[in-house]
Design brief:
Layout: H1 3-12, E1 24-26, H2 31-41, E2 45-48, H3 54-59, E3 67-70, E4 83-85, H4 90-95, H5 101-108, H6 113-118, H7 121-125, H8 132-135, H9 173-180, E5 184-189, E6 194-199, E7 221-227, E8 235-242, E9 253-262, E10 265-274, E11 281-282, H10 284-290, H11 295-305, H12 318-336
Parallel strand pairs: 1-3, 2-3
Antiparallel strand pairs: 4-7, 5-6, 5-7, 8-9, 9-10, 10-11
Helix pairs in contact: 5-9, 10-11, 11-12
The structure holds flavin-adenine dinucleotide and iron/sulfur cluster.
C-alpha cells in the first residue's frame, strides 16, 4: 500500500483533527530543484501551490507528508493571451480581458473571491476528487479501499459518463473551459530534462487509467503553463455552471463551448461537459450535430445529442436535464455573440 493510502487510512479514523502533523517545508529555487525534491522524497512529499486543497488535507491529517515542496516561488504567474503561468491565481484569470470568454466565465465561478485569490490555475486544474465519500471517513477504491461507497449510498453528485468502479466527477471549472478551448499543458519533467507540450485533455485520468488519481502527471513532473491556440477568426466561446449555490460551491454540471463561426455557420466546435464524468468530457455527438450547419438551426439537435450515452446512477438523473439546459444556454450565447 502506498504512503498516501496508508496515511489516509490512519487519518480517516480520526475525524475532527484540525492541526497538521509536523513536516519540512522545502523552498526550491528553480523548477528543476522542485521536481528533484519531489522525486527524491517520492510518496513522502507533496507539491504546494496556492494550498487551498493541499493545506486542508494536511491540516486535517488526511495526508501526513514528511516534506512539502513550495512551488509558489518557481511557478510562472504571468497571464498572456496565449500562455498562462500555472502559478497565476484563478482571480488573475477571471479578470484578464486577454482571455477567451469561456475561460473568464469559468474562473469567476470558482469558489469564492478568497479562494480565487489564493488558488492557482495549475492547482485548480490538478485538484483532487471532491466525492463526499472519498473526502469523508470511508475507504473507497480511490482512497485505497475495496469498494465504491457512493454506489452503495447517495449518487447525487456523481458521473453520467466515464465512470468505471469509481464515479467521481472532475471538480475543476477552469479545466472544462480550457479543454473546450483546445488548450495545451506545458509540463516540466525531470526525467525528460525539460518541458513538453501535450493537449490538456490528455493529462486527466479516467478511473480505468488510475483509480486513485485525477491526473497523469508523475511525481517528478510539474504543470508549468497552459497554452491557448492563437485566436481563430470567428471564434466565440461560452461557459455555464449549475450549482446548489451561486458562490462557494462546486458544479453539479457545467458546459463550455467554443464555436468557430463563418457568418451564421458553425465551421468547427468543441462542446465539453463538466462535473458529469471523472474528466472534462467531450460531447462529440453534439459537436457532430453542429459542425457545418447554421448554428441556430442545429441547437436543439446538439442539446439532444449532448447527453447521448449518459448512464444515470440512482440519484443523478437530474443532471441530464441540467446538461441539456446548459448546452442550450451556451450555444444561444455563442449564436448571439460578436466574434
Ligand atoms: C470551499 C471550496 C470551494 C471550492 N469551489 C470550487 C469551485 O466552485 N470550482 C472549482 O473549480 N474549484 C473549486 N475549489 C477548488 C479550488 O479552486 C482549488 O482547490 C484551488 O484552485 C487549488 O489551487 P491551489 O493553487 O490552492 O492548489 P493546491 O491546493 O496547492 O494544490 C492542488 C493539487 O495540485 C497539485 N499541484 C498544484 N500546482 C501544481 C503544479 N503546478 N504542478 C504539479 N502539481 C501541482 C498539488 O500537489 C495538489 O495535489 C474549491 C475549493 C474550496 C476549498
Ligand atoms: S465514486 Fe469514486 S471517489 Fe466516490 S466513493 Fe466511489 S470510488 Fe470513492
Amino acid at each position: 500500500m502506498s504512503f498516501f493510502a496508508a496515511s489516509r487510512l490512519t487519518a480517516k479514523s480520526q475525524i475532527g483533527i484540525d492541526e497538521p502533523a509536523s513536516f519540512r517545508l522545502l523552498q526550491p529555487k528553480s523548477l528543476e530543484e522542485a521536481a528533484r525534491m519531489l522525486e527524491e522524497h517520492g510518496a513522502a512529499a507533496v507539491a504546494l501551490a496556492g494550498g487551498c486543497d493541499v493545506l486542508e488535507k494536511i491540516k486535517t491529517q488526511w495526508i501526513r507528508p514528511g516534506f512539502v515542496v513550495n512551488l509558489k516561488p518557481v511557478l510562472a504567474k504571468d497571464v498572456a493571451a496565449e500562455k498562462i503561468g500555472a502559478g497565476a491565481t484563478v482571480a488573475q484569470v477571471a479578470k484578464s480581458e486577454l482571455l477567451p470568454a469561456a475561460l473568464r466565465q469559468a474562473a469567476v465561478r470558482v469558489a469564492t473571491p478568497q479562494i480565487r485569490n489564493m488558488g492557482t490555475l495549475g492547482g485548480n486544474i490538478l485538484q483532487d476528487s471532491r466525492c463526499p465519500y472519498y473526502r469523508g471517513p470511508w475507504h473507497c477504491y480511490r482512497a485505497g479501499g475495496l469498494t465504491c461507497d457512493a454506489v452503495r449510498g447517495y449518487t447525487h453528485e456523481h458521473a453520467l459518463f466515464g465512470g468505471e468502479r469509481c464515479f467521481t466527477v472532475t471538480p475543476s471549472d477552469t479545466a472544462v473551459a480550457l479543454v473546450a478551448l483546445a488548450a495545451e499543458a506545458e509540463i516540466f519533467s525531470l526525467r525528460e530534462g525539460g518541458v513538453r507540450r501535450v493537449p490538456l485533455s490528455d493529462i486527466f485520468a479516467l478511473p480505468s487509467y488510475d483509480i486513485t488519481r485525477m491526473h497523469k502527471l508523475k511525481q517528478d513532473e510539474l504543470l508549468t503553463s497552459v497554452l491557448l491556440p492563437a485566436k481563430k477568426p470567428g471564434a466565440r466561446s461560452s461557459f455555464r455552471k449549475a450549482a446548489m449555490r451561486e458562490a462557494w460551491d462546486f458544479a453539479l454540471a457545467s458546459v463550455a463551448v467554443e464555436c468557430v463561426m463563418e457568418g451564421e455557420v458553425c465551421r468547427d466546435v468543441r462542446v465539453v461537459l463538466g462535473a458529469v464524468a471523472p474528466v472534462p468530457w467531450r460531447a462529440t455527438r453534439a459537436e457532430e450535430a453542429l459542425r457545418g450547419g447554421k448554428l441556430r438551426d442545429r441547437i436543439e439537435d446538439a442539446v439532444r445529442a449532448s447527453v447521448e450515452g449518459a448512464e444515470a446512477l440512482p440519484h443523478n438523473h437530474y443532471k441530464i436535464g441540467l446538461i441539456k439546459n446548459l448546452v442550450r444556454e451556451c450555444l444561444e450565447e455563442v449564436a448571439q455573440a460578436k466574434a
